[in-house]
Every structure is written in structure tokens, then in C-alpha cells.
Records
---
Amino acid sequence: MSERLKNFLIYAAKCATGVLVVFFISSFIHYTDIGWCLISVMLVLSADGKDSVSLAFTRIKANVVGVSIGVLFLFIASTNVWILSAALVATLGLCYIFKLDAGIRSALAATIIIMLHQEGKHVWDTALERIIAVLAGCIIALIITFIFHFKTKPALQDLKENQQEA
């Protein structure tokens, strides 16, 4: 089996596992708005097997940056095109400063997820629900990454090697 096919099959299994875990947990706790959690899981999971654990950690850190910026800008003003644009630029800036380049797309998605809310719902209720969903998705994806990565290479060894290179 080629390395490319092996990575594809592992990634497909990780994605399917992520969906199953999110659906199982949400049915267990009777939570129906699972979209943001699923998006977070998919953004944290990596198709490439060699740096999966370190990339998952980078994307989680980036998600925390995105969530934090989203909340900060919600304190500044209600969401409009200018506030959202400024929040996205701030998210990019912080990811650049913290060297989270590999997680920038995930951070931008987290910022948008937190800042947009449904009509008729209080902005802070929506933001809090989405913060929990995004962070839960990050945790689920990290656990899935560890489980699948331990099958091919010890995840902690991979993480240590990547930290030493940085």
C-alpha cells in the first residue's frame, strides 16, 4: 500500500470517527447544534500522518486565539463588516506573532464562528455555546489524533521531536 493511500485511509477514518463521536456525545447530552463542533473537529484533524500531533496542538492554540479575539471584539461593538474585518486582521496578527501559521485558517474560522449569531438569540448566549462547541471539537480532534497516531508512531515522541526542531 502506498504512503499516500495509507494517509488517505487514516484521515478518512479520523474524520468518520470525529463525526461518530460528536453525534454520540451530542445525543447523550441532548445537544442538537453540533455543526460548530463538527467544523472544529475537521479543522483540527490533519491528513498528513507525520506531524499530526504537533499540527493538532498548533491548530488548537490557533483556535484559542480565534475564540479570544472573537470574544474581545464582541466586547468592543456589535458585529458588522468593519468589526468582523478588524477581528480577522487581529487574529491573523496574533497567529503571526505566536508563529501559528499552520493554524491560521482554523483561527479565522473560530473568530467567525464566535462573532456571528442568529437573529433572535442573545449574542452572548450564542457566543458561549459556540466557544464550548469549538473547544469541545478541539479536544475531540486531539484525542482522535492521539489514538490514531499511536498506531503508527508514538505521539509524544513526535511532539518532542517537533518542539526540539522549533
---
Amino acid sequence: MTSIVIKVAERIYAFVALNVLWCFFVLLGLGVFGFMPATVALFRMMREWNSGKKDLPLMKSFLTFYKEAFIRANLYGAMFFGVFYIIYVNYQFVSYFYEASIHFFLYVVIFSITAVAVMTFVNLFSVMAHFDHRLFHYLKLAFGMVFAHPFKSFLQLFWLIAYALVAMFYPKAFLLIGVSVFAYVIMSINFTTFNQYKKNTPVP
């Protein structure tokens, strides 16, 4: 019983420590340039945990993964910033440039595109954490997963919404372990799929 309590306490500590590291490295990159590589590094840690490597040195491993992902993660960050900005602009323009009779249809289209873009963005972190591919192959795989595995995409979307609600109504819990727990759940959902893909697909 004591050993179980110790293991649970160690795991909670690891989640909290990773959340602190994520916050630190986001700030280290001045926020804008730190968010993407810090999040990829966090997902990489969760990938290692799912692989059974639960005793990695947290600080050293996180720093290594952060530096490895810094450039390509920020390239994707800039690209998705552009995508979400275009979606936002189109959303704002609906009421100004189109008749009220088609507003509902246009909002449904924009919402659908937004959902696909968000899920592709979320998948991108776990894809970059698990594979070593050419730059744009990550995007192709992250986008394809949204449609190839609709049930898992639904689970991720449900978890994303639940996570957002927790962050909204329980901000203290979110600040403590929120980001690391979020990454662990998303990575766990995708891990089996990634292993199957890696066995059946040659690395480009």
C-alpha cells in the first residue's frame, strides 16, 4: 500500500514539475517563440512515458527536446497563426458582406473548418513528438488523422472542451497540472495509432 502511495505521489510531482517547466520555457522564449517548442517538448515527454521510459531526468530531457523542436515548431506556429487569423477575419465578415438568410450556413462552414484546423493543430504536437519526418510531412499526418480516426478525433475534441471548461472554472487546478495532464491524455489517445502507423509506413 505504501509503495502505491509513493508511486502516485511521484507521478503527481512529475506532472506538476512538467507543468512548471512548460511555463518556464514558454517565458524563456518570450511567450510568442516559446509556446510551440515548449509544448512539443512536453508532448515528447509524454511520448516517452507512454513508451515505458518513466524515469527520464525531467529538466535535462525537456531542455533537449525544446532545443530540437525550436525552429520547426515555431515555423508551424507562424503558419497556424495565419490560418486562425484568416478564419477569424472570415467569421467577422459574414455579417457585413452576406445576406442574413445564409448566415447560418456560413457559420456552420466556418465552425467546421475551425474544428478541423484546431484538431490538426492539437494532433501536430503529438505527431512531432513521436516521429522524425520532413517538415511538412508532420502537417500531412496531423491533418489526415482527423479524418482517418474520427472516433479518436471526437475523444480529443471532447477532452479539449472539458479541459477548457476546467481551466475556466477551476483556474488554480489548471495552473498546477493543467497543461501536462492535457498533453498526457492527448498523447495516450494517439499512441497506439502512431505505433501502428510506424510499423506499416516507411519513414520518408
---
Amino acid sequence: MASPTRFTLTEHSPTLWRVTFDNPPVNLIDSTMTSELDEVFTRAEKSDRVAVIVFDSADPEFFMAHYDLSAKDELDHVLAHPEEVHPYTALLTRLTKLPFATISSVRGIARGAGSEFLLATDMRFASLEKAVIGQFEIGMSAIAGGGPATRLPGLVGRGRTFEILYGGLDLDGARAEQYGYVNRAFPDAELDSFVDELATRISSFDLQTIRDVKRFVNVATLRPDAEFKDQMDAFWAAVNRPAQQHVAGKLFEAGLQQRSELERDLPQWVTRFQYRAGAGEGQ
């Protein structure tokens, strides 16, 4: 495969790989990153030796900000081909089923699609001081499309899922650990060493046994794939409505997808631009 442009791939050993997101200015996930990750997954499966992939970020402030919301051609394609499964939905579904362990090491902001990526990995470990995790989409008049309505209840429970998806607020590392959004949260200076030690330990074990663990846990925990297509379809339908377009337009004017105070505090900014039909510019 060609060298990826949205992240770096480090093969620490034949059994332990690391994907480090590096897509300035704020580590957006887009169609290019989706296809590049898919290529990595294919290569890892074909190697027949990979036991663990760790996902982290080169940017200590942004793990993965959210999905790239500027691609109008993507919206046009989705609306013209409703029968298709969106590539990001397919990627996350594939991620949950990879025949080896996957670990997210969260330092920085992981909102929207960034949070959804974390939820599709087997384990999530976070920095107490620097992790910021959440689903802000309701503030943009859209449902989260990458499956948190399906994946969160098994981790945090029904009530807290509603709190996260209705409220659209951030959780810091401590709160994310308390809720079960992440496995554990560590002082930032200790996060890397813990993740490295755990990943190295797992990578030393028998690969067939790792595959068996993944298979049986998935049997007990995974929901039908169709649920994820339905949620992504609902997201893109929202993107085509005036309410979402109003909020998104105002946010882009104010610094969305740039290294800005808006991106650092997005859940608060979205409240400034809420749309009300018949109210002109909205609130």
C-alpha cells in the first residue's frame, strides 16, 4: 500500500502496530482517512500475524475532532445512492470485527466521529488532564451517524446514553472513566507507558487465542449491522435539512474545522446558532 497521508503507521513488531493520526489542523476524519484505514486493516488481516493495533494522535490537543463536514459532493452521493452503506459506517463495523485486539489511547479532543471511532475499538484508555470526549451532533440539529446510540448503552447504560446524546456535552477523562465510556483514565504522564505495556503483553500471546476471545465477546455484544446504516442514513438526511445547514453555515463562519476556540469548545458554540423555522436567522 502507498504511504498514508492522514496518519503514520508504525510496525513496532510483526504482532504490534500503531496508527498515529496526523491530519492538521484538527485531525478531521474524511473519505481519504477512511480509505487509508481500510487499507491498513486489509494489510493487517493478510499478514496473519498482527495481534494488536494501537490508535493514538500526533496532536496532543486533538485526537480526532469529528468528521469533515465540508464535503458537499459526499452529501450529493449519499442522497443519490440510499442503498449504499456509507464507507465510514463500513469501516467502523469492520473495526469492531477485526480478528485481533484494538486499543485507543485518547489524548485530546475526540468528538462526533472521533468518539464513534473510539467506541468501535476494543479498549479505550484516556488522559485525565487532556482527554475530551463527546457527541455534539444534537447541537447541529443532527443525530450522531456513527453508531453511538447502539454502542453506548452497553458501556454506559440507557440513561447516560441519553445524557450524552441529548446533552451534546463533553466528558473529561475522569467522567468518561466513571461512566464507562473509557476503560480507565490515567495521569497524562502515565498514559503512554500503560498502553505500551498492555499492548506489548497482548501481542506476546497466542494469536488464535486472541481471535477466539474477540469472536466470543463479539457474539455476546455486537448488534446487527443494519442498525448502523440506519443511523448514518439519518445523519445525512439531517445534513440535507435547513436546520442543520443553518447551524453548520454559522459554525464554518466562526472557525469550524480550523484550529480555533470554536473547535476547542464546540458544545458551547453550537448553542449560539440554533435554528427555528420561521424565525429568520434563528437564535
---
Amino acid sequence: MKQRREAVLSLLRREEPAAQLARRYGISEQTLYRWRDDFLAAGEAALAKGKNGVDARDQEIRALKAELEERTLTIGKLAAANRILIKISRQLS
């Protein structure tokens, strides 16, 4: 893992050409570039995370699920109240 990090950081810093770095680490240039892409993707994912390690999309999903549950309960209460009012209305007619 340390070798990968060193190779990728050297590539990103442009300390040596990719071909030379690949030879030094005994890998293909394609592998070096794949390591770089994985490294950068992991960095993006880490930056997207919120304070508690949950990314913004997950936080939004949780908030929306909580809102949906609250609205579902409200609809249930209103439906029950409506049934009671209909029953009372029929009795008064």
C-alpha cells in the first residue's frame, strides 16, 4: 500500500515521467494510472463525507425517509379522523 501511495504521489507531483515511475516500481503504466485514478476517486469520496462520516446524499436520504414516515403517520391520523366524521355525519342524517 505504501508503494502505491508513493508511486501515485510521485506521478501527481510530476517528479518523474510515468514510464520511468512504472519501471522503478515494476508495474505497467496502465497499472500506475489505474492506481492514480483509484487514489483520486477515494479522495473525492472522502471530501464528500460530512462531519460524521456520512456523505451528503446519505444524509438527504435519511432526512427524506424521516419526512415520508412523518407524512405517512399524518395521513393515517387524518384518514381515521375522516372515517369518524363520516360515521357521525351518517348518524346525524
